[in-house]
Each structure stands twice: as C-alpha cells, then as structure tokens.
From TrEMBL, chain A:
Cofactor: (R)-lipoate
HAMAP family: GcvH
Protein family: Belongs to the GcvH family.
Protein name: Glycine cleavage system H protein
Natural source organism: uncultured spirochete
GO biological process: glycine decarboxylation via glycine cleavage system; protein lipoylation
Residues with PTM N6-lipoyllysine: 63
Highest taxon in the source lineage: Bacteria
Gene name in the database record: gcvH
Automatic annotation (TrEMBL), chain B:
Cell division is among the record's keywords: no
Example GO BP: glycine catabolic process
Name assigned to this protein: aminomethyltransferase
Transferase among keywords: yes
GO MF terms held by the record: aminomethyltransferase activity; methyltransferase activity; transaminase activity
Enzyme class: transferase
EC number(s) reported in the record: 2.1.2.10
Entry superkingdom: Bacteria
Residue positions binding substrate: 198
Length: 127, 368
C-alpha cells in the first residue's frame, strides 16, 4: 500500500500534505483500497472554515458511505472539481489527481501532531 | 454480518485471484476482483463476463402428474412450454407473497427449476410439502454447477469453444452442448441485461470449465474476465430485474412489484385468489425507479413527497455505471408512482432532490 512520504495522516485515513502555504486533503491508498470503487464525493464550498477533526464531506463507494474528517483546522481555498465529476480519480491517484480539497491552515502546529508516514504505516499494519 | 457456511468449488480460485470475498446467502462469494465493481460492470456490457453462480439452487421435478403440479405451484403459463423452452416465474404463498422467483426449464423428461441460493431450502420444502404422490421433487444443486457467461460477445465465445453453436438457440431456450468435452446444458438467459447464457454441468468439472473459458477467451481475442456479485447487482439493477429480498419478497406481492405479467390468470395457481383480491382492492404501494441528485441512495432510505411527508422506502439503490445515474428502486404510495413525479430521498439525514423515472434504466438485450 502506497504511503505518501510528504503527507501526514489521521487514523481515519485522511491525509494532509503541504502545498506551498496551503494543505491538500485527501484519503490514503489504504483507504481507497478498502473502500473499493468510489462513486460519489461531497465536498465543502470554498470559504468554509473547518476545525481539526470536523466532518468536511462524504465519500461513497459501491458498498458504503464514509464521513471525511479534517486532519487540520483551516479555511477551504479550493475544491477539486475534477474529482466531483469523476470520483474514480480517488482510486486511480489518491495522492495526486484524486485530492479532495485545499485548505489555508489556521494552526500550523496541528500538522506536526498527525501520524507521520512511519506511524501511519504501523497503524494500518505495514512496517 | 452473516457467517458464511458454504463455499463453491471455485472459492480458492477466487481468493488466489485477488477477489474481495463476503458472505452472500450463506456462501463466501467474490464481491469483486482486482478489476473493481464498476470496471467489471463495464466489461460485461462491452465483452464477456464470467460469473460463478453455483450458490443458485436447482430442483428437478419428475413423475406422474408433474406437469399439473408445476402448473399449480408456479405463476407462469407452462401449458405451452415444450422442450427446448424455459420461462421466468414466481413462486407464491397462499397470501400472494413471493416465496422466490425462478426460471423453469422444460426438459424432455422433467421440469428443471433454478432458484435463488437464499431460498433454496424453503423452496424445496414448499414443493415437497405440496407434491402429490407420484411426483418426485429432487434437489440437484450439489451435483450441478452453474456459471453464467454474459455480454455482447458471450454467444460468439461459446460458439467458438463448444461442439455445436449456441447462436442457433433462441432466447429463453436451452440446448445440449459440450465444452472441452464437458456435457453442458446451455440456457440462453441471464441476469445482466446482456445476451449470453447460463451453463449447467457436472459440479466436479467447475474449475476446468472456468479456466478453459478464461483461457480460450484470451486466446481468441475476446476479452473475458471473472465478475463479482457487486457488478452482478448493478447489472441486474440497471436492466430492471428483481432481486428477491429487495424488489420482491414474502412481504411483497407481485401486483405492487409490477409482476402481474409473470402470472397466468387463465389457470389455477397457489396465490391466485389472493392476487385477484389485491387487484380488485387496489395496491397501497408501487415499485418505482427513482433518480437521485446529490448522493447515493441505498436500501432502507426513506422517500418523501415534496412537502416532506414520508411516502415510502428504497429497497435497493446504487450508482449505475452504464447510465451514469444514482438510482433507487422504492415502494411508494400510488399517487407518487408516475414517472416525472418530484420526490426526495433522505440520505444520512438530508433530503436530496429526486424524481420518479421509468424502469428499466437499461433496456435488456432480449427486448432490443
């Protein structure tokens, strides 16, 4: 299972990845594999304020719906319209074209408190 | 989650080929392979999908009086069924509830009835309890294997690998063929909306026939892949075919579910009196298709009228890959059953815009 070395993770499998002064949110390769084919994503509007741990959207696969939780606090500055139109991008490229939203973080220290790639690997049973 | 107690002869093959397995009707079955549920759906609509459906049951009815017995037990007209014909039918209880839906094959010396895995024991019991002396009801499920071959190139594939062509077999008819020397009954039916067939053959040949079809498909340049139950469900859903326990069940009668056409009122059958009373009285709900905007509808979700009042529930729902819609089947009050009626579906607490649509979403091959 691929783990993006530049990202940090929640135990619920969302990641945050620095992109300039912003953070990109998405779900991990492990999560997309477990979900199976993603068929629908619902994402917040640009300008919405999110607190760390708050639900920011929903992702639905063929078999089930899952809530999405914000890895860090911040304001939504961009939403991936491509993934709304073609949710299978999450399966094809979860760390790249299948990103979900871009956020201006309000508390940079929260990122350091997330699971680093090694810790997340352990959490999903990979060394 | 139910604990699977049974496996099919192909179970190890599925697991070793990367299938995600889960319990279905007491069997540990492949839900999808590495292709993924959506990809498997598209593949079946494009070329050839192979389905391990050995969980389905087969019941053989023979003996003096078998013709009259079958005619009385199931809803479909059978008096005009002669070999090599087969037909879709329902099995009702006295109240008109649907015990199961089935395919009945008229074989030269018997009636061959294909039933759902989850109802196999109940169906057998029902037939045996009602059988008069002289009529023999035999469970043939264990010695018969069943693989479905479905898709626009399925007939071409079987034509090329069988000892005699299946393209000359009419829809809803059967023929005896041999594939790789394995005697096989080919029924030109299916559960996907595509052309193709269902193969019945000796259970001990399962792995050999399965691998032979995959290998020959590849060698002939006919894309042929295994398909799991998730795609089987979306394929049947788009094509408007019911799944027992959802669109039909012991709690649902064929009139409200839109299956009056599968009942022959010119003859006597178990449940007929109840159905006539229901028709006379009118139904309290109807099965409809609903397209939802902004979410995936699923079984159990509530359907509401535009003013917010509850009018029914979804019995199945999903993303439909070919027609690219989020759609449900739901039972709603008859006033809301007309195509074009605006409704809403409650998805995780939020009402989502939805509209009643015509079923089926995808016209099956046999109706084109």
């Amino acid at each position: 299972m691929a783990i993006d070395k530049n990202a940090r993770y929640l135990e619920s499998h969302e990641y945050a990845k620095p992109s300039g002064e912003h953070m990109i949110f998405g779900i991990s390769d492990h999560a997309q594999t477990e979900l199976g084919d993603v068929v629908f994503v619902e994402l917040p509007a640009v300008g919405k304020t999110l607190s760390k741990g708050a639900m920011f959207g929903t992702i639905e696969s063929v078999k089930a719906a899952s809530d999405l939780y914000a890895p860090v606090s911040g304001t939504v500055v961009e939403v991936n319209e491509a993934v709304k139109n073609d949710p299978s991008l999450v399966n094809k490229d979860c760390y790249g074209a299948g990103w979900l939203i871009k956020v201006a973080p309000s508390n940079a220290s929260e990122f350091d408190g997330l699971l680093d790639p090694a810790a997340y690997g352990k959490a999903i049973g990979e060394e | 989650m139910e604990e699977p107690t049974n496996i099919t002869a192909l179970h190890d093959w599925h697991v070793s080929h990367g299938a995600k397995m889960a319990a279905f009707a007491g069997y540990d079955m492949p839900i999808n392979y590495s292709t993924g549920a959506v990809g498997e759906h598209h593949l079946t609509r494009r070329s050839v999908g192979l389905f391990d459906i050995d969980h389905m049951g087969q019941i053989e009815i023979t003996g003096q009086g078998a013709d009259d017995f079958v005619a009385r037990m199931i809803t479909a007209k059978v008096s005009d069924l002669i070999p090599p014909m087969a037909r879709y039918s329902l099995l009702l209880d006295e109240k008109g509830g649907v015990i199961d839906d089935l395919f009945v094959y008229r074989l030269p010396d018997s009636w061959w009835i294909v039933v759902n895995a989850s109802n196999r024991a109940a169906d057998l019991e029902w037939f045996k309890t009602h059988a008069p002396s002289g009529v023999k009801v035999t469970d043939r499920s264990d010695d018969t294997y069943m693989i479905a071959v479905q898709g626009p190139r399925a007939i071409e594939l079987i034509d090329k690998v069988a000892d005699s062509p299946v393209s000359s077999i009419q829809r809803f008819c059967w023929g005896n063929i041999a594939i790789d020397g394995i005697p096989t009954l080919f029924g030109r039916t299916g559960y996907t909306g595509e052309d193709g067939g269902e193969l019945f053959f000796p259970a001990e040949k399962a792995l050999r026939l399965w691998e032979f079809l995959l290998q020959r498909g590849e060698a002939l340049g006919i894309e042929t892949k295994p398909i799991g139950l998730a795609a089987r469900d979306s394929l049947r859903f788009e094509a408007g075919m019911p799944l027992h326990g959802h669109e039909i069940s012991i709690e649902i009668n064929p009139i409200e579910a839109g299956f009056k056409w599968a009942c022959d009122f010119e003859k006597e059958f178990v449940g007929k009196e109840a159905l006539l009373a229901i028709i006379e009285e009118g139904v309290s709900r109807k099965l409809v298709g609903i397209e939802v905007f902004g979410g995936v509808p699923r079984e159990g979700y509530e359907v509401c009228s535009p003013d917010g009042g509850s009018i029914g529930h979804c019995v199945a729902g999903m993303f439909c890959p070919t027609v690219k819609k989020y759609a449900a089947n739901a039972f709603v009050a008859p006033d809301f059953a007309k195509a074009g009626t605006n409704v809403s579906v409650i998805i995780r607490g939020q009402p989502r815009a939805a509209v009643v649509i015509k079923r089926p979403l995808y016209i099956p091959a046999y109706r084109r």
